[in-house]
């Protein structure tokens, strides 16, 4: 549904502190917590044997993002996809970003 309100990216979503976010990283050990101009973000690079596989994964992540109305930054290259989850409206990460990273991880594991 195109006009569906994103529950993950509300401007009143509680933003996690650096300490809270670091504590949550235990559930996604292959991800990194980056501080980009004072905005915390979750980042992971996924490896693939070729561009077609990387693009297929990008499309699966994109379909998931559309289904929840919350969209990551995605960079697709030959054999590599970089996914960054954060909430633009609050300028950082919140619980929904961790849930999205977990689902992204599951999408990758299902295919590899």
Automatic annotation (TrEMBL):
GO terms for molecular function: 4-alpha-hydroxytetrahydrobiopterin dehydratase activity. HAMAP family: Pterin_4_alpha. Its EC number is 4.2.1.96. PANTHER family: PTERIN-4-ALPHA-CARBINOLAMINE DEHYDRATASE-RELATED. GO terms for biological process: tetrahydrobiopterin biosynthetic process. It catalyses: (4aS,6R)-4a-hydroxy-L-erythro-5,6,7,8-tetrahydrobiopterin = (6R)-L-erythro-6,7-dihydrobiopterin + H2O. This is Putative pterin-4-alpha-carbinolamine dehydratase. The keyword Coiled coil does not apply. InterPro entries: PCD_sf, Pterin-4-alpha-carb_dehyd, Pterin_deHydtase. Keywords: Lyase. It holds the Pfam family Pterin_4a. Belongs to the pterin-4-alpha-carbinolamine dehydratase family. It comes from the Bacteria.
């Amino acid at each position: 549904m195109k006009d569906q309100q994103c529950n993950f990216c509300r401007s009143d979503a509680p933003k996690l502190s650096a300490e809270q976010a670091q504590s949550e990283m235990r559930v996604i050990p292959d991800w990194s917590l980056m501080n980009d101009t004072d905005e915390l973000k979750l980042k992971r690079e996924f490896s693939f044997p070729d561009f077609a596989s990387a693009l297929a994964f990008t499309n699966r992540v994109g379909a998931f993002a559309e289904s929840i109305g919350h969209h990551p930054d995605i960079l697709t290259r030959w054999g590599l996809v970089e996914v960054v989850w954060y909430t633009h409206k609050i300028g950082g990460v919140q619980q929904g970003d961790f849930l999205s990273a977990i689902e992204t991880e599951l999408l990758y594991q299902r295919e590899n």
